């Protein structure tokens, strides 16, 4: 399955998705298309129910210019955000706004059939009455995007090569997009703040990362790009690098992931019941827990300083449970990034916490699914 190229019709639709509402004149100015071509596109979009005339436009030369608004409520997309220990399935409008959602505890190691059956049952529970136009599925592992499969996932035993898109496609006859969960988050973060060049870090049990540059996810040639958590950490001792969950040695995650911090604290005799409990101890000012998170920040800062120099993002945004430690984590990251990355690359760089909230993954997956569907819709409409 390949993405349908965005036709000129799609350019006008993309504009509406970006700006929410526009006048006929604005569409002409922004696309460079003639009045008659724009009229044709607007009529086709209105016939498809994707825009509606809202009136009240500005006057140009005595003639009122009609205004049109994107109809995000025309249909819905389903977003299934599958994590290692839980999943959230949301029904979202075409702008990615979650309308309703349900969450379930799962164990991703149970394998695809068991976990996807939970997704299907969650979809049933949502009792969706609207037209469903697409499905976005997020998984905590590397995704061969065009094929909709996970490939050699370090923490998803039994999922390697499983045809996730095919599994959904057999149940719902709509386009299905499978995306790495960190990539989906990066899309949600980038669209929320209108940034075209952004690095998103998901810091929870593990270290996930997604890169959006020039407004698009950086996947690389095999879908492996952007996985900072499993690059070699500067904290790794050459003689005795710590083992990572992925089977490799000395990864960033083995020093800065929530599981690694719990391991370190355990060795100091400080018990943590979960990553959430660790975060709670940091908030209470437990000295060793605070130190561990500060150190993790420096490890992460070292790991992304090189990326900042090479790619020059405008924003680095942190989400996930560990991000709830706020300044404790941020300070270490800032310290190392500003110290080690190229000055020109950090001059306007903003390092900040996500403000989207817990449904960031669901939003990102809905946007990725809507991107696919509306590009497809555009292709059909323009034909
Ligand atoms: Zn690793």
Describe the structure.
This protein is an alpha/beta fold. It has three domains: 8-70, Winged helix-like DNA-binding domain superfamily/Winged helix DNA-binding domain (Arc Repressor Mutant, subunit A), CATH 1.10.10; 74-186 and 360-378, Nucleotidyltransferase, domain 5 (2-Layer Sandwich), CATH 3.30.420; 194-353, Nucleotidyltransferase, domain 5 (2-Layer Sandwich), CATH 3.30.420.40. 41% of the residues lie in helices and 20% in strands. The chain has 13 helices and 17 strands. It has helices at residues 8-19, 24-31, 35-47, 112-126, 164-169, 181-193, 253-256, 258-267, 275-283, 287-311, 327-340, 343-346, 360-382; strands spanning 21-23, 51-53, 59-60, 63-64, 67-70, 76-82, 86-93, 98-105, 132-139, 143-144, 149-150, 176-180, 198-203, 207-213, 216-217, 315-319, 350-353. A five-stranded mixed sheet has the order 8-7-6-9-12, sandwiched between helices. A five-stranded mixed sheet has the order 15-14-13-16-17, sandwiched between helices. A three-stranded antiparallel sheet has the order 1-5-2. Strand 14 and strand 15 (216-217) form a beta hairpin. Helix 1 (8-19) runs antiparallel to helix 13, helix 2 packs across helix 3 (35-47) and helix 9 packs across helix 10. The protein is globular and about 75 Å long. It starts with 7 loop residues before the first helix and ends with a helix. The chain binds zinc ion (ZN). Zinc ion (ZN) binds next to loops. InterPro entries: ATPase_NBD (IPR043129), DIP2311-like_C (IPR054760), ROK (IPR000600), ROK_cs (IPR049874), WH-like_DNA-bd_sf (IPR036388), WH_DNA-bd_sf (IPR036390). This is ROK family transcriptional regulator. It holds the Pfam family DIP2311-like_C. Belongs to the ROK (NagC/XylR) family. Residues 21-63 form the Transcriptional regulator DIP2311-like C-terminal domain.
């Amino acid at each position: 399955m390949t993405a349908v190229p965005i036709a000129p019709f799609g350019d006008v639709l993309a504009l509406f998705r970006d700006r929410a509402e526009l006048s006929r004149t604005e569409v002409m100015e922004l696309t460079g298309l003639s009045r008659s071509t724009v009229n044709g596109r607007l009529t086709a979009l209105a016939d498809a129910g994707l825009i509606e005339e809202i009136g009240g436009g500005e006057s140009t030369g005595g003639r009122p210019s009609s205004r049109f608004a994107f109809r995000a409520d025309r249909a819905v997309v389903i977003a299934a955000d599958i994590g290692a220990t839980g999943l959230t399935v949301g029904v979202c409008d075409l702008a990615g706004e979650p309308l309703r959602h349900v969450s379930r505890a799962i164990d991703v190691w149970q394998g695809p059939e068991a976990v996807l059956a939970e997704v299907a049952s969650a979809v049933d529970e949502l009792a969706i009455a609207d037209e469903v136009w697409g499905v976005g599925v997020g998984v905590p592992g590397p995704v061969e995007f065009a094929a909709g499969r996970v490939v050699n996932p370090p923490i998803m035993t039994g999922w390697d090569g499983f045809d996730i898109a095919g599994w959904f496609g057999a149940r719902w006859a709509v386009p299905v997009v499978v995306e790495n969960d960190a990539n989906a988050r990066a899309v949600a973060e980038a669209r929320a703040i209108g940034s075209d060049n952004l690095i998103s870090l998901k810091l929870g049990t593990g270290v996930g990362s997604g890169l959006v540059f020039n407004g698009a996810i950086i996947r690389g040639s095999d879908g492996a790009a952007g996985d900072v958590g499993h690059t070699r950490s500067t904290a790794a001792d050459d003689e005795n690098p710590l083992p990572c969950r992925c089977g490799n040695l000395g990864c960033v995650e083995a020093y800065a992931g929530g599981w690694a911090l719990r391991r370190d604290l355990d060795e100091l005799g400080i018990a943590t019941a979960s990553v959430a409990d660790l975060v709670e101890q940091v908030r209470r000012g437990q000295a060793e827990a605070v130190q561990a998170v500060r150190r993790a920040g420096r490890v992460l800062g070292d790991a992304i300083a090189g990326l900042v120099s090479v790619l020059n993002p405008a924003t680095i945004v942190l989400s996930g449970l560990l991000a709830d430690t706020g300044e404790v984590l941020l300070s270490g990251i800032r310290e190392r990034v500003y110290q080690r990355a190229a000055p020109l690359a950090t001059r306007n760089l903003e390092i900040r916490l996500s403000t989207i909230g817990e449904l960031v993954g669901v939003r990102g997956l809905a946007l990725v699914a809507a991107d696919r569907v509306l590009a497809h819709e555009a292709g059909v409409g323009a034909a």
